[in-house]
Structure formats: C-alpha cells, structure tokens
Please model this.
Amino acid sequence: MRLLGGASSLSFAAAHRCNVTLMKRELSVAGVKCDIPQIEDFLEHACKDAGVDPSASFDLHLALEEACCNVIEHAYEGQGGELNVGFETVGRDVILTVHDHGHAFDPDTIAAPDLSVPLVDRPIGGLGLHIMGQVMDDLRFSFSDTGNTLVMLKRDALPASPTLGE
Amino acid sequence: MEVSTVDLKRCTLIRLGGRIDGSFAPELGSKFRAVTDSGRYKIVVNMKDVSYASSACLREMISVWKTCRRWNRGDLRLAEVSPNIDKVLDLTGLKSQFMLYATEAEAVGSF
Model:
C-alpha cells in the first residue's frame, strides 16, 4: 500500500488513545450522484445511533459528501463504480472511510484555494478538499491494487461519558 | 431542496430550503441560470431554511455571483444565513466576499 499526500506525517491518535471500536457500519453504493442522499441518510442514522454531537455531525456530513463527490466526479468521471463508505467510532472519535476502484488520486496534485484572492479572480471549484481538511482532524489518502482509500478522523465527536460515581 | 423565485421591483428573490448537496446542486444552478438568462442580475437568496450546503452548492452560487457582477450589472446577496451555513461560508473564504444580510427586507432594500 502506498501512502500519498504526505500521509506518513499524519497520525491517528484514536488508535492509540482508546483502542475500542464501539460501533462500525458500512454502506456500498453504485458511485453515482443520485447516491448522495442515501449516503447522507446512512451517516445521519449512524451519527444519531452513536450519539455524535450535532456540530460534529454537520462536519462529518460535509467531509463525507465532499469525499464521495470527488470519487463520483473524478475517480469514476461520472460513469459510476463501486463506492464503499465506512463509519466507525473509536473511543470518542469517529473514523470515516471511503473506498473506490477508480482512477488513482494524489491530493498533492490539488492546489489549495487561495482564499486571499478576490472571488472574482478565483476559479469556481476546488473547495471540496479544502473543506475536508478544515472540518476533519486527520485525512489519510492511499492507493493500492484495490483502489483509493480515504480515511478521515474526527476527534471528540462523541460526548464525554459521565464520570463514574458522580 | 425547495426553491421559489419571486421577481420584485428591485431584484429577484430566491428562497431556498432543505439540504443542498451534490445531487441537488445542478437543479439549483438551472434555477439561477433561468433568472440571469431572463436578464435579471440583481438577486437575493434567502437561506433561512437551508439546513445544509456543500461545496457543490457554493460552486453554483459563485458561478451566478460572477455572472451577476460582470460589467457591474448586478450582484447576488444572501439573507438570513444560519450558523451552519455561515460556518461553511467562513471555511471557504466566501463570507468576506458575499454581501450578507440579517433579514430578507434588508437584502432586498440594499439594491
């Protein structure tokens, strides 16, 4: 497995802090635009059942949709293909996983939008990856013979448990 | 996604509602283009009932914003943006680019 996008410098603290997976769910869709509502419903139910904080839930929705849209539009170029989405809670953290078999994606080839440039001079697109990086605590892109895998971490998305004895 | 369009004397008022994600963004773009294709370039978008907007929605809004502002013929202005949408606008650097108004009346009156 080859890590791309400087992923070697990223760390997934959740795996070290509390190596307990409390909930894990997966969804497989056809990888076309009309799957987006189904993906959102999947995440909404997972967040609700896990007790994810509403603010964190909104961030997760943003990040997951951006990731899936990138797969639909770029990895599969609108032609569709298997798209697998995973939701997992580890301690208080949430890990989202997106896997596809489309074109290899190297995030280092995508220039970050220059938000200091007046909007009139900025290109219209290119915000999805930026949003993902803003709302998630870690992003890890990888590509192997089985396709692209994106793993996204949101720390402290679940409320702290009340202290025993209180 | 819900969309309603009203042509006022000063501008066109578009009221949006629901979740505007990648599956609905093309429809939003079509609604915007229908307004500008009719020669109306002063647009107010009331976002009060929009619970979610992704970058696909923002792309459509940026596109029509650029169209409206070309040759100083108009503008696209936002009214009643919720905290969540405000956050998305802020994350993407659009909060400082779009004119935002607390009420629909103020936004319409700004034209």
About this structure: Residues 54-75 of chain A form the longest helix (22 residues). DSSP finds four helices and six strands in chain A.
